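Below is our example:
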Amino acid sequence: MNRRWMMVAIAFISQGVAYGFTFGMAGTFVGPAGDEFAASRVATTLGTSLVALLHGLLGPVVGVVLARRSIRSVMMTGAVLMAAAFLTMHFATSIWMFSLAFGLLGGAAVSCLGMTPVTALVGRWFPTQSGRALGIAFMPILVTMEVTKFDDFVRFSLLTNPHDLAVSLWTRDDFKLQRARRTLGGMLKENDGTDSALGT
């Protein structure tokens, strides 16, 4: 396998772990944990809310770390944090311990395994024509978030995960904005089999 596409495969797996183990699988263990500890809905769903909050807040922080450290070290940190989250949840003695472990450790893990480092990884190996590679690397998000239409993906990007777009606009980073256009263009081509309307 071409080494560049091996990096795309690693990015794909990383996103699958990040979003699959948190947003995708939350319902399979959050509900039973609430029943086991006879907890309120607020305490039971706190973890999922914290994951989403930390994922957004830590995105820029992870970006700064990526500028100084290797992508590998950031992703390995995310894997360790994810393992620590589930280990702590397994031995939790209260719903608060369970939810905080899931939310704080899991949220930090998602930031180290998700969009920001994956975009950096693929961008380094595909400095040009990265749209298709990024589209493949981001597929686990679309599956995990149950995004079935391209319009839903755009709404998810703008409303649920706006920090990447906000950082790009605030810093007026033309390179990042062009990369975003290429990514959307690649997804449009994959979606309908025609040339992209975005000129990529």
Q: What stands out?
A: DSSP finds eleven helices and no strands in the chain.
